Predict the structure.
Amino acid sequence: MKKALLLSAAALLLAVSCTRRPVRPAFGTVSVDTLLGDSGAGCRIEYRFATILNAAESPALQAVEQANIRYFFQTGEQTGSVREAIAAAVREIDTIYTADIRPTQSYEISVEAEGSVQDSLLTYVITRSSYTGGAHGIYETEYHTYSLAKGYEITTADLFTEEQAERLDELILRKLCRQYGARNEEELAAQGFFPEQIGATENFRIAPEGIVFCYNPYDIGCYALGAVEVTVSREELDER
C-alpha cells in the first residue's frame, strides 16, 4: 500500500526507491502527420508520442507505457500498442470532424509528449493544442509522474498527509491572491478567476522548490489568464 508522505521531493524519492536498481527508460518518438479531408476544409493531425523503447525489459516500464498511451490518445481503459492507439484516434477524429461536422475551414490537432527521469521518478509531459472552430484555439499541458521502480503514478495522496491535504486548498487560494495582488476571492474573481474551482489538482510536477500545481485555461479561470502555476513548499504547508 502506498503511504502518504510529507511534502518533500527528497522524501518521495526515498519512498519509491528500490534495493534493486530499476531499469531506466530509453525514449524514442513515434510521429504522425496526416491530413483528413483537404487543406481547405479538413483536419491536420500531428502526434509526437514519446514511447519507451525498452518497455519490455521491465513490468514497471510496461505499466508506464500503457498509462502514457491512454493519457496521450485519451483512450480510457483501452490498451494496446502505440500504432493501434494512433489508428483508433485518427478514426475517431475522422468521424467527428470530417464525417459528422464536415468542416468548411481548416482544423488542427497537435499532441506532443516528452519523458524524463530524475533519480527514481519518471515524468511524462503531454502538450495539446488545437483549433476546431470558434474564436480561438485551445492548449493545455498535463503532467504525470511515476515510480520508476514500481510503475504506479504518483498522486497527491502519496505526497501529503491528511492534515496537510486539509490545508492545501486554502493555501493555494492564499498564494494565488499574493501572486495576482488580490485581497480576497472577490478580487480574484474580478480578474477572471473562478474561486469556487480553486484547489489542489492532480496535474502537478515535482520541482526542487516544492510541488508545482498546474492549471490550464478554464480550469480555475478564464482563457485570458492563460496557464497558471502555484508552487507549494514543504515549509509553507507546515506553517500554522
Notes: Residues 82-100 form the longest helix (19 residues). Residues 1-7 have pLDDT under 50 and may be disordered. The beta strands are 27-36, 43-52, 107-118, 121-131, 138-147, 204-207, 210-215, 228-232. The CA atoms of residues 29 and 50 lie 5 Å apart.
